[in-house]
Amino acid sequence: MNCPYCKRPDSRVVDTRASEDGLSIRRRRECPFCGKRFTTYEVIEKLPLMVVKHDGRREAFKREKILQGIIRSCQKRNISMERINQLVNEVEREIRNKMLAEVPSSEIGECVMQKLRALDGVAYIRFASVYRKFDDISNFLEELKELQQAAQAETGKQ
What we know:
Mean pLDDT: 87
Number of strands: 6
Largest sheet: 3 strands, antiparallel
Strand content: 15-25%
Shape: elongated
Helix content: 40-55%
Number of helices: 5
Distance between the termini: 56 Å
Strand order of the largest sheet: 1-2-3
Radius of gyration: 22 Å
């Protein structure tokens, strides 16, 4: 690694740590020529991932789109930004672990809904109402009924 100050090669690693999210490695380096220290980050190179939309269009995967949708769903709920980011990381990891070049948008939406359902029922219903495009109250009530039955089944297990 070249020193950013004197541009000489062969800096040495002084300290190595994993980042908090575990997706990168932080390295403190020192230049043996000028003695200055600097930080570098090492990340796994991500394969390009394309999202196939319902109408057949393809676009690059954008983590920010998932984040914005989840933030809107969790608005005015007692859910921290840290937990929201964690949820987005889980969704992205799950999608990328499939090692596919293209993934249907429906698969991403279902993954988000599954994780939101476990996190917060209200946020889940908000996301589902937009994602599934509820066109009348009966669709909404049907989804609420399923959520309520799942919650009752969970409390019955305990």
